[in-house]
Structures are given as C-alpha cells and as structure tokens.
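Hi support team,

I've been running sequence recovery on a batch of backbones for a student project. Most finish fine, but this one hangs at about 90% for roughly twenty minutes before it completes. I'm not sure whether the input is malformed or the queue is just slow. I've pasted the structure tokens below so you can try to reproduce it. Let me know if you need the job ID as well.

Thanks,
M.K.
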C-alpha cells in the first residue's frame, strides 16, 4: 500500500478513537467534537505521511 493510504487509515482510526473519547467527555456536543476530530485527523495524517515518506522508499 502507498504511504498516503496507510496514513489515511491511521488518521481515520485515530479520529474515531478521539471522537469516542471526546463525545463521552463533552456529553455529545457534536459541533466542538467534529472540530477537534478534524484537527486531530489532519495532524495524524500529515505526521504519519511525512514519517512514512522519510523512512520508506
């Protein structure tokens, strides 16, 4: 699999995990939950993609 696909899968998994934790903590405030999850997903995606491109040919 390409590094973009692996980074995307990892970002989706991390975002789902963060969403479940944040939703429990905020009591279901969907607006702020989605914002936090989007930011975390983008950060995880770019960090993973950068690391995979650095170490894997």
């Amino acid at each position: 699999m390409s590094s973009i696909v692996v980074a995307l899968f990892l970002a989706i998994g991390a975002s789902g995990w963060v969403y479940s934790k944040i939703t429990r903590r905020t009591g279901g405030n969907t607006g702020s939950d989605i914002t936090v999850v989007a930011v975390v997903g983008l950060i995880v995606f770019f960090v993973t993609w950068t690391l995979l491109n650095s170490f894997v040919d």
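--
Follow-up from support: It reproduced on our side and the slowdown came from queue contention, not your input. Helices lie at 3-26, 30-55. No action needed from you.
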